[in-house]
């Protein structure tokens, strides 16, 4: 008999807390990275019911886990139970990564960082001095808008079917970072105009996602200039109809797979303090791309 030595008394425990949790790819991602880097850690899923969330966090602390991710539907609620949330996470209003430092839990949000790293990596450009349109005003839009503002965008225009939600994000960033965000009702012509004039367009509206792949997040009045970088946070299908239309007009297009992937990479770096090398990250990305898209 061969003795299984993968988990010992010294192994660090990592995991992901959410519900449902069955479809998460995070255990495979983090355990693969640990295996290749020979880091003595194991990452496991924790399915938690809403009424048990506080007890679960207390339990994770009592068990001295090294860190964990938080996913749907607890990214906001978890913040109440964390000892200290980062400034970015507070502005973004959500925590998806928690690190245990000497028995205290610190909360971070790696969605914005994941988006920014993926965007820079895949487009070869950044947000400095750019005019950025964001479609949608939910959790992803809030994280992306915060990061894009921190990264030096000139203007951010948030377009949403419920303009009040876009206005909420605008006020939050204008009051906490810089006064560069305005909000639009997607039905208004002014929104159509800023869309066309922008340098970068980021879609966070879940229209066009598998299986409703014919849907697009904007109506026919909206048109691309042809010079824009267009990012869709959707990654399944890899090329949404929205991205196809942008591509036909000559725009550079990117899907959301990199964002998903890099938020995980960034979390891993927070927990372990290891900065993952570019070539290694590319190798992992390639291995996981096939797993996540159809
Ligand atoms: P969310 O908080 O529910 O926000 C969704 C936004 O889309 C809201 O602004 C909503 O408008 C708008 N919307 C939804 N259905 C619409 C419709 N039929 N017509 C017009 N607008 C509509 O969701 P989220 O967490 O921000 O996620 C949004 C998308 O980002 C999803 O596709 C998700 O998969 C993707 N995402 C990707 C990553 C990644 O790593 N790639 C990470 C996070 C999220 P109202 O405000 O009017 O309701």
Describe this structure in words.
The chain has helices at residues 26-37, 53-62, 87-92, 111-123, 139-150, 163-176, 189-197, 241-248, 257-272, 278-292; strands at 12-18, 41-47, 67-70, 84-85, 97-101, 104-108, 131-135, 155-160, 181-185, 200-203, 229-232, 252-254. Strands 2-1-3-5-6-4 form a six-stranded mixed sheet. A six-stranded parallel sheet has the order 9-8-7-10-11-12, with helices on both faces. Helix 4 crosses helix 5, helix 4 (111-123) crosses helix 9 and helix 9 (257-272) packs across helix 10. 42% of the residues are buried. With 294 residues, the protein is an alpha/beta fold. It is built from ten helices and twelve strands. The protein is globular and about 65 Å long. The mean pLDDT is 96. Helix content is 39%, strand content 19%.
Q: What keywords describe this structure?
A:
19% strand; 294 residues; 39% helix; binds NADP nicotinamide-adenine-dinucleotide phosphate; six-stranded mixed β-sheet; alpha/beta; 10 helices; globular
How many strands in all? 12
End-to-end Cα distance:
39 Å
Report strand order across the widest sheet.
2-1-3-5-6-4
Instruction: Work out the helix count.
Output: 10
The helix content, as a percent range, equals 25-40%
Please tell me what the overall shape is: globular
Provide the structure class.
Answer: alpha/beta
What share of residues are in beta strands? 15-25%
For the residues shown, what is the average pLDDT?
Answer: 96
Task: Give a concise summary.
The chain is of the alpha/beta class and 294 residues long. The chain is 39% helix and 19% strand.
